[in-house]
Amino acid sequence: MESHTVRPHRSADGPAKEQQLAWRLALVATDPVEVEDEVVEMLGNRIIDNAAVAAASVARRPVVSARAQALAHPMQPGATVFGLPPDRRSSPEWAAWANGVAVRELDFHDTFLAADYSHPGDNIPPVLAVAQHTGRSGRDLVRGLATAYEVQIDLVRGICLHEHKIDHIAHLGPAAAAGIGTLLGLEADTVHQAIGQALHTTTTTRQSRKGEISSWKAYAPAFAGKMAVEAVDRAMRGETSPAPIYEGEDGFIAWLLSGPGHVYTVPLPAAGEPKRGILDSYTKEHSAEYQSQALIDLARRMRERVPDTSRVESVVIRTSHHTHHVIGTGSGDPQKMDPHASRETLDHSIPYIFAVALQDGRWHHVDSYLPERAQRPDTVQLWHRIRTEEDPEWTRRYHSHDPAEKAFGGHVTITLDDGTVLEDELAVADAHPLGARPFSRPQYVEKFRTLAEGVLEPQEQDRFLAAVEELPDLGAGDLDRLTFEVPADRLGDTPGTSRGIF
């Protein structure tokens, strides 16, 4: 890896195109290096992972709405939409939109956390949609996805967005544009322009993840993917974008991030170096914010020592700055303690999540969020006795570059009504590559079959998984096999209830 430094410049001072971050990302995208077998295998895992979550969410209202919007934009050859027959196609940007919402709705797919955080699996819907529409092969697809994962993960390593209240999709848009550029074999100049346009149009605030969190949390990454498709289309037509987009005097860093004088360092693969970023990411075993994964596992473990949660006087979770301030009591969000809060809000409330996991000894993507579950009096009592605190050591470990030291969990102290103190800690989730039960292909397949049960017919599950096994060998026009069809009565479509402009 090579370190690329990026900082704001006055218009009169450059920088030259060759020194701009967007150009360097374009060079990564256009480097013809082959994709390693280990990366191909992991890409297949994440395609399965995305499909698993999409199957579980296919009948949920935000997904139904997004699918209806995509169906209003039919196109041939077009791209497939999760749940529909493969010959029912939509324009690629709208297919990316619908599929992106399905993948993101349950907050249940892969993650990478460093200076910022991300769900790099959000790149798969837009890159796959363009690949289907343009008749590309499995080999083309894995090359495009390897680029998209690499670019997003490298941006997340080097540039923190959340401290400036900028949403993480600002790294996703450029990554998806770069991945599509690789997929289509575009020239660096074209990819450069697409990356600039994608960043410019996908920079939004973090209010989408603050206060009462709405369904837009699922739509935001889908929006970034849709914008990336459109940005590449414009760039291919010869249209240009604001430049220098990162370093400009009135640009992204100068006014939205750390401002003039600040230098960011982004690690990027050298020319000819394989793109291996995806191997540093990890998926979720539980449908909740990633920082809660280890704490759910810890709650399940501690439950054996707390048979009666009505005796709990207090629970203190000492954890990283990010966990405390984003999903903990350090956020200052009263909604995180509200039994009538939305599912999206509860998903970002570690006091609620820990309370339910401690009581139930499990976490379920539907049952754990039901209103009757959230409003149960004994749960509310326990929930309101839980608080988080920032611990500098957990914050340091959260930001560590050493994989063996990096941690996303915390230390929990439970005090009972007789003064008994129970303590335990867990650094990484059980499903993490360094956890007690790391995920590999069998676990991804098990997750898919569990979430697809009762939604996809067994033979359709088998057909989809067989297609993923052939991923790098799929021929041009065969990528429509990387979707799934759901019986019409399981799609959640109710005529007349999802009407809009289209």
Architecture blueprint of SSEs:
Blueprint: E1 2-6, H1 21-30, H2 37-57, H3 61-71, E2 74-79, H4 92-104, E3 112-113, E4 117-118, H5 124-133, H6 138-158, H7 169-184, H8 188-201, H9 216-236, H10 252-256, E5 264-268, H11 293-302, E6 312-319, H12 321-326, H13 343-346, H14 350-360, H15 371-374, H16 377-383, E7 386-390, H17 392-399, E8 410-416, E9 421-426, H18 441-452, H19 458-469
Parallel strand pairs: 6-7
Antiparallel strand pairs: 1-5, 3-4, 6-8, 8-9
Which terms summarize this structure?
2-methylcitrate dehydratase PrpD; EC 4.2.1.79; lyase; two-stranded antiparallel ribbon; globular; 502 residues; 60s Ribosomal Protein L30, Chain: A; 2-methylcitrate dehydratase; 19 helices
Structural notes for this entry:
- The structure is a single chain.
- The protein is of the alpha+beta class.
- It has 2 domains: 279 residues, 2-methylcitrate dehydratase PrpD; 137 residues, 60s Ribosomal Protein L30, Chain: A (2-Layer Sandwich).
- It is 43% helix and 9% strand.
- The protein has a 4-stranded mixed sheet with strand order 7-6-8-9.
- The termini are far apart.
Question: Concise description?
Answer:
Residues 322-342 are annotated as: Disordered. The protein has 502 residues and is α+β, with helices and mostly antiparallel strands.
